[in-house]
Amino acid sequence: MMTIDPTTTPTKDLHQFLLGIVSPRPIAWVSTIDENGNTNLAPYSFFNAFSSNPPILVFSSNRRVADNTTKDTLANIEANGECVIHAVSYKNLRQMAVSSVSFPTNESEFEKAGLTAVKSDLVKPFRVAESPAAMECKVTKIITLGDQGGAGHLILCNVVRIHLDEEVVVNNRIDPNKMDLMGRLGRAFYVRVKGENVFPIVQSVMEITIGYDNLPDAIKNSTVFNGNNIGQLAGLKEPPTTEQIAAAKAKPIIAKLMEANNATEVLQIYAKEILDTDDNRRMEAAAIAWLS
User: Fold this and answer.
1) If residue 14 lies in a helix (H) or strand (E), which one and from where to where?
2) What pTM was computed for the model?
3) d(C-alpha 281, C-alpha 274), whole Å
4) Can you list the residues of the chain whose pLDDT is less than 50?
């Protein structure tokens, strides 16, 4: 395994290792305004939500690695303490990319990227009309993490107003396929959050599960099951009952598999096929796995 020492690795390389590992990252498309009324719009992928009550978003405006300069976003927020953070959907991806260019302060990224600036309700910076979600924010704190190139400025933002495209809301919840969000990876790579890339994992965090330590040795020592399969079985609230195991054993196909010389392996392969294709049949697969 490759070992990296942050203290001896050039910042430009360390930066890419970190971004390649901590990904995909959500993108904050941040609009600000300076004291002269110049609008600014820039994307930041050091970004996340950190609290719901109060509603707090945090993003980092880092010093440029190349020349250790800071960005207009940071200067504008330091001047007036306000911003609007937008979601980046697939339909606006390339416009977002244009807004990342270091245009002169007096040139608006809204105009350069062909975006519509809409007046906000509670803050001075404008909203991007084309974004499916905009969050007006009051900045509560800026935490400086260093003074060298690559050092971040954590910007803590209190959300005071949210604007959502009604098209993306279904039953009072955001539909991820309709949001069609973009995530940032390392270098120039992105990921689209839609279609087969979006799927549910149902696992209660309140109900105690059986855990890996209570799985049969044949499962723990398996070369067939991968980490996801082990997690599916360890995440059960209870192991299969004697009756469920007996019912599985009575099925002709299972009885035939149990006659094989490599019965443990073929039973686990069969159980794995169920786990990989239909999580709703997890207990059925567990009963077969317990037989192995």
Assistant:
1) helix 11-21
2) 0.91
3) 7
4) none
